Amino acid sequence: MTPDVLATSEDAVLGGRLRLRQPLRGHRVGHDAILLAAATGGRAGEHAIDLGAGVGAAGLALAARVQDLKVTLVEIDAALCALARDNARLNGLGERIDVHRADVEDRQALSACGLAAGSADRVLMNPPFHDVRRQNLSPDPQRRLAYAAAPGLLPRWVANAAWLLKPRGVLTLIWRADEAATVVAALAGEFGAVAVLPVLPRADAPAIRVLLRAVKSGHGAGKTYPALALNDAQGKPSSQAEAVLRNGATLTLAET
Predict the structure, then answer these.
(1) Which structural domain range is residue 50 located in?
(2) For 155-199, what is each residue's pLDDT tens digit?
(3) I need a labelling partner for 159 at 20 to 30 A (CA). Which of 77, 126, 171, 216 fits?
(4) What is the pLDDT of residue 104?
(5) Backbone Cα Rg of the chain
């Protein structure tokens, strides 16, 4: 049970492969979390940390894809942490999933959860990315917490991801496409070999998201992959999107 009274629904994602309890109000799981998991990749025996995990959608989708991968979910909201634990059990993943309530930006809090520097093979994250100074935000406090980015949030999250990762560990994140250059700049200090995959609502429309993969202390030129269009010209889900969002396919970004 959640620590507060919270109205929830139970919803199927990944074509029914994963079931998630989530709040009826506030932030709801969408394509971003599933795309993030599909772009992350992983191997049996590795440890991945999902920062800002919410109800656990991305981390659980990753664990469902990669057998024997251990995943730690980090979330600041106590009610969402409780739902994430429920979701791990609901999907038979409890033995491979740990959930911790902590502020992603607080290294002491992360350490208190047993997350040590240089302990993770992979970090994935879908940070809040709406600028509080430029955009009208929802009055709902949970939705605002999930979407609103305070100034300097992204570099701080990237720095703590680097702190958590082993040398040559991999960071995967999703962000607004119109701020892709901001992400690349934030990665420049600690990461290299940055790969980018734009996400389009349809093939003839501008990108709305970018998925990025970067290697801690990595070297080599960056790479941009062909864009993923979520819908075709008729507004129906594209075959490539269906393969990822419903059938559990992995994006090529995860294979680099």
Answers:
(1) 8-255
(2) 999 999 999 999 999 999 999 999 999 999 999 989 999 999 999
(3) 77
(4) 97
(5) 17
Number of helices (H), then strands (E), belonging to the chain: the values are 8, 13
Q: Which residues contact 31 (CB under 8 A, 6 or more apart)?
A: 230, 245
Rounded to an integer, what distance in angstroms lies between the CA atom of residue 104 and that of residue 143? 17
Chain centroid to Cα 183, Å, comes to 14
**Domain count of the fold of the chain:** 1
- Please answer whether residues 19 and 11 qualify as being in contact, where contact means their C-beta atoms are separated by less than 8 angstroms: yes
User: In degrees, to the nearest 5, what angle opens at C-alpha 225 toward C-alphas 219 and 231?
Assistant: 150
Q: What is the pLDDT of residues 148-158, one digit of tens each?
A: 556 789 999 99
Closest CA to 110 of 123, 101, 121, 118: 101
Pick the closest to residue 50 from 41, 42, 38, 60 (CA basis): 60
Does 222 reside within a domain?
Answer: yes
Q: Which H/E stretch holds residue 148?
A: strand 148-149
Within a domain: 90: yes
Q: Domain holding 109: CATH number?
A: 3.40.50.150
**97 sits in which H/E element:** strand 97-101
Query: Does some domain include residue 76?
Result: yes
